[in-house]
Give the backbone structure.
Amino acid sequence: MIGNLAVVLFDGFAFGMLLFVLSVGLSVTLGLMNFTNLAHGAFGMLGGYAVVVAMRDLDIPFLLSLPLAFLVAGLVSVVFERTIFRRLYRAGELNQVLLTIGLVFVAAATMAYFFGTGQQPIALPAYLQGYVELGGLRFGAYRIFLVVVALVIAGLLVFGLEHTRFGARVRAAVDNQRVAQGLGLNVDAIFAVTFALGSGLAGLGGALAIEIVGLDPSFGFHYLVYVLIVVAVGGLGSIGGSFVAAALLGIFDVGGKYFVPDMGAFLIYLFMVVILFVRPVGLFGKR
Amino acid sequence: MLKKTAAALALGFSLAAALSSTALAEGTVKIGLIMPYSGPFADAGAQMQAGIDLYVKEHGDEVAGKKIVLIKKDTGGPNPDVAKRLAQELVVRDHVDVLAGFALTPEALGAAPVATEAKKLMVDMNAATSIITEKSPYIVRTSVTIPQINYAFGKWAADQGIKHAYTLVADYGPGHDAESSFAKGFKEKGGEIVGADHSPVANPDFSAYVQRIKDAKPEAVYIFIPGGSQPAAIGKALADKGLTPPNTKLLGQGELTMPDAMESLGKNADGIITAFHYTLERKDPLNQKFVAGYKNLTKGREPDLFSIGGYDGMHLIYAALKKTKGDASGDALIKVAKGMSWESPRGPITIDPETRDIVQNVYIRKVEKVDGKLQNVIIDTIKDVKDPLHGAK
């Protein structure tokens, strides 16, 4: 029984880590730049398709195509940021929401046009398939990989934003744009890079998600709800918050379905409601 | 109430208008297609349309001296209201003679009253809930029903000596139908269901349910989930926990091992046993010609249950029109459709004259390696299966 609990906790944590990679970028753009980007999941989908094309048509191995997903999603997002999104930085939330949700529809139709409406399977390398046995318990190999990737990303992000010069600039640009600009910071460029980073992470998340949840043109809609829950529960702009929220969400989702399967699917919403009731700004939110 | 009367009146007026204008439409038979061309079920719509297009391409667009015209309407998904409105528009504005398509049960249920009122033949090319054909005397089904496959499958499984099974189904109408009909057949032959779980229809991660199954240590697991991303996801979750054949028998309806799911599952698909009415790999000249033609039309996509439903639906319409010598009235068409039987790429099929539902073979298939590639290999055929629920009240 304790063994089962360990396995369920691990499965939930791993699923949570997938949600973390998918959503942390949104937490950054929403929290730091005040831009409500509902098209975040669409960039995740883009990363997924990048991996599919890389692996299937270009024969690039899985591990090498992951950074590719990051780059493609990041680069495409910069184009959008420079041409479309930046016009709406000072507009109201409603305009931002309408534009970005519209983009999700466009993205879904575009992908359906080029890749068809079906699922896009990829074949993982053998070492990421099956399970690893530890003390009589079986842990999915791919899930272990997910956890490792997510921990590395979380570490890099925290370090990058809190302990590097670039991180200091981002925080300065966010806290007070005009002063930062007055001090000679190129706020435009900083925002563009931050945006690319966030979307790139979504792309990586989308790529990692193929194996667990699949990939089709409706990806951008499907995971929007989960991503928004993570951001809302974690608190805007907090990387630690996104991490904790995603982990809790994953564990609640999997644990709930394991222990009370009849209402398991509902538990995560209950969890969100309770947390937002107690802490309306999210677990680690500041405002 | 007032609204309803008004709607009925409007429909009545426009029907009269429609009748007076059929003279104009002399020489054509219009078929209104109602299905999800966009939204989460767009893939089902795309595959069904390709099946329809293939039939028209192979057999020409002229039957009994009439030109066949297809009019497509998009429901966007399981929306009964939209389907009903589209059916009304098709009848009233476009003067269609036949309503067809219906990938999803809600679409068929929405359109059924319109078919009855307008007296139009309605061909259900996929929606698989038993009750649909009972909703209008003008409905014919050319796809499959879930109890048809799974009741026969449950009996078959118990006959193979499987004693204890655990069922995991998606938590919606078709899932419940599958669960109860499999369990009924399985228990009638002496099997025992040791546990039953329902997963949300759009469940992203199956590890929790699979762990529950693992705890119960059943001899076999029966799974029913909609096609799309989930078959691969659940197959992988099972493999992650070591629940794979031959140690644990995996049973399911055909969606579980559809081509894209199989590609994604890789070697984890080996040994899964499924029951289905259409098997892509079935060695039969008619089927091989169908598959080749389909791949040619879709640039490489393989046909699935939606494709065959659309293809046979068109066959039914064409054959019925030939018999009525081009009379496209609902009463004439439904009369000749009853009892019609033909060789389809899926095997021999018949329209039951009493229920207007399809009677067909259920194929039991096992995933095996053939020439180094995993595919569904037919290991048993249950002949001429009827839906067990019609008339069983």
Summary: Residues 2-144+286-356 of chain B form a domain with the Rossmann fold fold (CATH 3.40.50.2300). DSSP finds twelve helices and 15 strands in chain B. The two ends of chain B are 31 Å apart (CA to CA).
